[in-house]
Design brief:
mainly alpha
Length: about 160
Amino acid sequence: MKDRNILKQFISERFISVCDLIIHRYNIPSKAGFYEKIQIHGQVYSDIKNKKLYVGIEHISNLLVAFENVNVQWIFTGIGHMFLYDTNKQKRAIDDFNRAVRDDLAAENIPEYGNYDDYIEKYVKQLESENMRLIDECKSKQDIVDGFLNGSIVKQ
């Protein structure tokens, strides 16, 4: 039972960490507005933060719906990064790129590649390259966030 409570406490702490960072990162002027967005009562949030309650699955679910870039694996296990992608701008760039490729394929606008298989091969290489670039960028930013969270970096 003790191990289960420790796990619940870790999950609750990660939930609070990501919420606090979202409030700070997105300059959310009203904590009440944030609580409303993730459908949690302010007192419940406070009790979770003060270790009087454990976070419920419905609160985690509401957070994930409201902020789709939060990494559920990180909340539950601490593995990976807090965010799946760093900013909405990055998500839009990826979505735009994917949409353009889908549009090209739909229009069969691929003569410069010779054939469909060549086009797909080049597309996969582009995606792999972009994915690696984004992963590296996110890792460096996550290292900064982790530094703030674990106290190795302090605001001056």
